[in-house]
Structure formats: structure tokens, C-alpha cells
Specification:
Shape: rod-shaped
Number of strands: 0
Radius of gyration: 18 Å
Strand content: under 5%
Helix content: over 70%
Number of domains: 1
Structural class: mainly alpha
Distance between the termini: 58 Å
Number of helices: 1
């Protein structure tokens, strides 16, 4: 396995993790916002 290939794979995995974390953060923000609206109305 060459260095370039490994780096490419690592970047792919990193992008996947980043996307998952981003989606989770969005979900959390939306959820907490909905919760705040529910509490204060």
C-alpha cells in the first residue's frame, strides 16, 4: 500500500467522520431549538 493511497483513504474517512459530526451538530441544534420553543411557548 503506497503512501499516497493511504493518505487518500485517510482523507476519505476523515471527510466521512466530519460529515457525520456536522449532521449530528445540525440535528442537535435543531433539536435544542425545538426544545427551547416548546419550553418558552
Amino acid at each position: 500500500m503506497s503512501y499516497g493511497r493511504r493518505r487518500e483513504l485517510f482523507a476519505q474517512i476523515l471527510a466521512l467522520i466530519d460529515r457525520a459530526a456536522f449532521a449530528r451538530a445540525i440535528q442537535y441544534l435543531l433539536g435544542s431549538r425545538a426544545f427551547l420553543v416548546y419550553v418558552f411557548t
